[in-house]
Amino acid sequence: MSNHIKACKKKDQPDTAPQDSHVSLSSKNDTPKRISSKVKKLITDACVEFSSLDNRPFETVKGAGFLRLMEAVFAAGQRLSALPSVQVTDLIPDSTTISRNINQVYKLRTDQLIQWCKTIDSYCITVDFWTEGHTGIHFGGISLHHIDKNNQLHVFILGCYPYDESDQKAPSVRTFVERILDEYGLKLDDGKYVMSDNENKMKSTFNFKCKRIGCSSHYLNKQLEHGFTSETIDKQPVDCTEVQELFDNIKALIAHIRRSHKQLKLSRKLQVYSETRFNGAFYMLNVFLVVFDELFPIINGSHLENYIKIDKTFLQEVCEFLVPFDNVFQQLSVTDRPTLHRVIPLRQYLLNSCKTEPEDHSGIKKLKEFLRKRIEKCWILEDEHYLATIVHPRLKHFHMGAPGDKEKAVHLLKLAIQNQITSKPTSSNLSPFPDTTANNMPCNKYSNLSNGKSLLAQCFDQVSNPEPFHIVECEEYLNSTTNSDENDDDNILEYWTKQQNRFPNIHSLARKVLAIPASNTEVERLFSCSKMVVTDNRTRLDAEKLNKIIFLRKNLYSLKQLEKKEEVIQGSQKRKSMDEWKVDSEGESEGEQRTPSIVKRHRIGDNNSAPSEDELEE
């Protein structure tokens, strides 16, 4: 009995093994286990040493690639924990091996993207060019935008290729772009869109076999640049003298402070004006306003005059006026959702912001008047801007638009759907209301005279032809209401997921125009991406390797998500086919079982049949 009690006590005692050995990655089905403070301290110290010894940014540990590396190392540690002696250096690959495997991963993912491109029916590309600072190589970046039939927006970087044409004229640029598209099985035609900046070279490059849409952010940024830096534009005076004097004085002071190494004495780092940065004047002026009171003690006598000329109140008014512009740039630069429908309302929003008020500074009034005229004249709206706005359920009435915008958008919507229907070769797209009156005109003309009805009755008896289906669809959509959240204007794809069967023709058009971005920000961001890849310590990286690294950096996560969806679809289809095969096999087996039983009963009936006369005589 005593032995039995001891055995029971051993079973009731908790496990005294250290928790450190049981730490594992939590999955969806497992509850996360508590990690001891000693393990956390060990990891923290290792991260500190990693940042210090390898001179890496502190935020490296938050990167998706670093987390993926930690998961792989953790999984490898779990598998190799039983081995007696495994060195860390045995697991880490050589740098040459990493470089070589980048080529393999790039090949795998480009093949996947090529296969995906075969499934798309419409798309928009964005194109831009720049020169890498360290190597001086000229690069061309191209991104692809598409909304699939499940109303999911896909954005991929096709590449950041070194420009290897003989010159930079429009025909050579077009050849360069078409060669890259051809690698992915894509081809430009009248139904495809191109988003680019508004230089004359880009306008000439894409003036045929495609529809070029100008970048809205470039339109707006160029006018702000003229307002702060140009004396004349289109042979007309800019007349923004007060604002430009303020801008020049601040720009000179910032250059002096950064050059004289007095930046460390300020609480914020002064920003240098950049023409290529959207709303660059605002960022320079706004940071200068924040540290304005800190500048007087550190400025020398030679630049003190520039500081005294600056009116802080006027500077604050300029910054407050530029805040709406900065908000618009941010709204137009979103890349993970449609943005083209925002152009018309945001353009009108800025025009309203440029209305002068009696209490405005004289310099602000001049700047507002200049920008208002330039926005109305130079910010060009294409038909696709109106179509993208009218297919948005909460913007289709154009309350924020100019007079006449709604009538123009309704006309473009009906015309675009009609052209879309007539361009389809299938007979199902023909009008469901055929016009049969023309064929019956001769007989109806004389039959009405002999039917015995009065003239007035004949007039009342005329039946009007029904309107085409696409016109009825447009009218029903325009008169419909939506219950979308008033605080959320970005659920347009969710709306069309619910309404695609109700308005099929408008949904097809919405997929096409909403894939067009409002700006070419996705390609613009390749500039900063290339700067992070090619640094002072990494200048020997060749152009082809740079292209592959940027491709993987921008597309790897999205392509993995596509791969997972395809695996789920294939798995469901495989299970469905297996279920159908089981049903068919069960049916066949049942049929095989019934056949011999029937024959058997038939034979039993033959054996038990009535005896013949000979048998009776016997």
From TrEMBL:
Keywords: Metal-binding, Nucleus, Zinc, Zinc-finger. It comes from the Eukaryota. Residues 1-32, 568-618 are annotated as: Disordered. Residues 576-585 have a biased composition (Basic and acidic residues). Transmembrane segments: none annotated. GO terms for molecular function: protein dimerization activity; zinc ion binding. The keyword Zinc applies. Its main location: nucleus. The keyword Secreted does not apply. It is found in: Nucleus. SUPFAM superfamilies: Hermes dimerisation domain, Ribonuclease H-like. Pfam families: Dimer_Tnp_hAT (PF05699). InterPro entries: HATC_C_dom, RNaseH-like_sf, ZnF_BED_domain_contain. GO terms for cellular component: nucleus. Residues 474-556 form the HAT C-terminal dimerisation domain. Residues 16-29 have a biased composition (Polar residues). This is HAT C-terminal dimerisation domain-containing protein.
